[in-house]
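Worked example

This section walks through a single chain of length 261. The input is the sequence exactly as stored; nothing has been trimmed or padded.
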Amino acid sequence: MQRPTTSGRRHNRAGSVTVAELIRKQPTPLRIPPCEHVPAHVPPVDPLAVEPPRAARSRATRAAKLAGVATGAIVLLASVAAASVLAGNRPAGPGEASVQAPAPINGSSALRPDVLSAELGGGQQPVLAPVPVDEVLPPAAAPSAAGSSVVPPPSVAVGPEPQVDVVRRFYELLPAKPADASRLLSPDLLGGDAHGFVSSWGQVQAITIESAALRPDGAVVAVVSMQERTGRWMRVEQVFWLTDTTVPRIVATEVLSAQRS
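Given that input, the structure is written out below as tokens.
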């Protein structure tokens, strides 16, 4: 048998693959770490849980904040409304006494400076010494034998506004001649206390007439300042109603305001 004449090296055939190439072409096997290397505290990952985008989370946060603010505003408005209702229906306590307006000074009290002084000073009316009857009413006013009395009015120079002239004359006679001034008043206005009227003007030493004007309804509004014997001054605004006669008489009066000056 005849031996091949080749020199001992093998020649690769066309299209043949070596064993080394086959090994390199094999896929790399997956290496699973052993169980003891897996941390025990790591929770399992849910493949369905997907983290929302950041913009979506921001919108959700803003919506939650707006809802909270709206709820707080509604609660606050409801609380304020409830408090207002409770305050309106709350009964007045013992310390909440109603304040009443001062009673008007009219009639014979409005003609007495001692009453006005007591009202302004908050004190009691002074006790005045009695005045003799002959100083209150002149002799012509004494009762006659028939039981009637005639009280002639003092002389008054009336002009186009006789009511204003009578009021001015009334203050001019005060305080030097309060008895003469009383004859310009109706007997009903004095209230039967002519002595008290004359005595009350004994504590006034001077009167200044600031103004006297006729109102459309025929009444006269006068503003005067009175100086008491203590030196204090009172400023009084007073309205007078008079009769519609040649020489009117004062039938009603009321103090509008009085203050210390």
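What to look for: Residues 36 and 257 are 107 Å apart (CA to CA).
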